[in-house]
Structures are given as structure tokens and as C-alpha cells.
């Protein structure tokens, strides 16, 4: 199994919403109300850009979810497996973990998570049924999506060909809505 040059990383590939909900729904639900304390991404030092083949790490008060895409539909979610203080060793590349390398991520750091969502692609193409992982905050959102065999990140609302499947939603005042029901 390829570890993406990351010591101890063992991706667990899933395909589709039902697989993700079955394997990780309870943990994604449990993130609501937690504060985003750090986001780690691998940076290519030679090219001066995000190396989008490696996982994206979201730390919510010590619960770290690690998101990675490959091929057209493969999604790996792992938890607390990767230590970003260890180097990334991928032959031919000079890579390093960086915290919040994009302004959109910097703006979300320190905010409480309102909801984790799965965004299911409903378009009439080969990507139909693929899911993206989205984190919703009071003042913003970040989504990690499949960018055709690598990770992509966006900060806007779901598109017209995406169906949102939220887990717990934290409302102002601390009231929690579970899967659409208060």
C-alpha cells in the first residue's frame, strides 16, 4: 500500500456516500461544536505550491481528520494517524507540511464547526455519486473535493449538481440538529 511518503499513513479507500456514512458518520457527527485549531497541507518547496496528492489534515480540538482522494471515486478518511511534525519523503520532491497556506483556511482557524457535510455529485456524468467532505462554520465553509486523482479545496457553497447531506448541525446558542431533526 502506498503511504504518500508519510510515516505511519495507511489510507483506507472508500467509494460513495453509504460507505463514508457507515465507516465515518459517527465521527464526522461528533465534530460539530469543536473548534478548528489547525489545517495542514503538504507544500512543494521547489514549485512553491500546494502538493495536492497528499492528504489534507483538519484538527478540531485534537480530533484530526485526514482527507485524501485518488482516482475518480476513491476517498480515504483516516483519524489521528498522521503527525505533521514528521517529514514527507516522496522521491524526486522537496515536500513539507504547512499550516493554513491559503487565506481562506486562515480565516476559518479558531471557529467552531457548525456541521460536517457530505456533498454528493448528482450530475449526469462518470462522477455521479462521488462525495466531497465539507465543513461549515458560522462565517464560512471549506470543502475538500476530488480533483481527478488529487485533492481540491474550495470555499464556496455547494454547486447546483451537489446534494448536501449534513451530519449534526450546531445552531446559535448551542442547540444541535441531528441529521435534519432537532
Shape call: globular
Number of domains in the coordinates?
Answer: 1
SSE series:
EHEEEEEEHEEEEEE
The fraction of residues in strands falls at: 35-45%
CA-to-CA gap between the ends? 42 Å
Instruction: Give a count of the beta strands, DSSP E runs of length 2 or more.
Output: 13
Low-confidence stretches: none
Helix content: 10-25%
Question: What does the main sheet amount to?
Answer: 7 strands, antiparallel
Radius of gyration: 16 Å
Can you put this structure into words, describing what you see?
The protein contains two helices and 13 strands, in the order βαββββββαββββββ. The protein is mainly beta. The protein has one domain. The longest helix is centred in the first third of the chain and has 13 residues. The termini are far apart. The model has no long low-confidence stretch (mean pLDDT 90).
Record keyword descriptors for this entry.
single chain, 182 residues, mainly beta, seven-stranded antiparallel beta sheet, six-stranded antiparallel beta sheet, 2 helices
Can you give me a brief rundown of this structure?
The chain is mostly beta strands.
List the helices and strands and how they pair.
Blueprint: E1 13-14, H1 17-29, E2 36-44, E3 49-50, E4 56-60, E5 63-70, E6 74-79, E7 95-99, H2 103-108, E8 113-121, E9 131-137, E10 140-146, E11 151-154, E12 162-170, E13 176-177
Antiparallel strand pairs: 1-6, 2-3, 2-4, 2-7, 4-5, 5-6, 8-9, 8-12, 9-10, 10-11, 12-13
